[in-house]
Here is the input.
Amino acid sequence: MQVKIDIECTPLEARAFFGLPDVTPLNDQLVAEMSKRMSENMSALEPEALMKSWMSYGGQMQDQFMALMRQASAGNPGGTGRK
Here is the structure.
């Protein structure tokens, strides 16, 4: 025997039925805070700012990247450079 029940309700009604709290004010505050932070940090996404932050690590990061590529192309997961 099968019983099928279709219930139509809004998310707010479902939360109230199951006794869950209404998180709408918290969600609104979270969205507002994230929007504020994103608009404050938009300048960090400019190409010049990105390149400046990437280059602040110096050539060390480039050397590490090149070593990683050499290891990958050599098929040597050990990283010793020897076959």
